[in-house]
Amino acid sequence: MAQEQGNGVEQELQEQAESTAALETKLTEEKKRADEYLDNWRRTAAEFQNFKRRAEKDKADYAQYANQRLLKRLLDVLDSFDAGFKAIPEQFKNEPWVEGMRAVERQMLQILEQEGVTPIDAQGKDFDPNFHEALFYEPSPGASDGQIVGEMQRGYMLHDRVLRPSRVKVAKGE
Fold first, then answer.
1. For residue range 144-161, what is the model confidence (pLDDT) as tens digits?
2. Range of 86's domain?
3. Which of 20, 88, 141, 164 is most solvent-facing, going by the fewest CB within 10 Å?
């Protein structure tokens, strides 16, 4: 009987050990799943933060460049002012109405500048396709190959983007 009791205790201890091992295995699996869930949650939270940052940047860019189409159209008006001033005969250049038109042009330039529009300085610079559009290539003594020797139409930047490239004449090598 003592042996039977000993076997019963051993069996009970063995069952408890197996039960404990099964619980530990299950606990390890659950910890693994919890870690996976936590990792997924962290990844999702990071993705959401990135999305928010990207959306805020897109919104800021939109606000900064929303008027781009209108500003481009105003540049054509500015070109017309420039062409008109070049066509004024010498005897009328100092007339009050001409000075009034120059004041309107200056006001327009000031407004464009306040909106972030700045002219691209092209004359005498090296040709850069990011900022310039080559209309002509011609031999130009005294100018290096690829140097801009004439500006046909002024280009403009809107903040850090090209609003309209400068249309230029480029020196061609001998």
1. 888 999 999 999 999 889
2. 67-115
3. 141
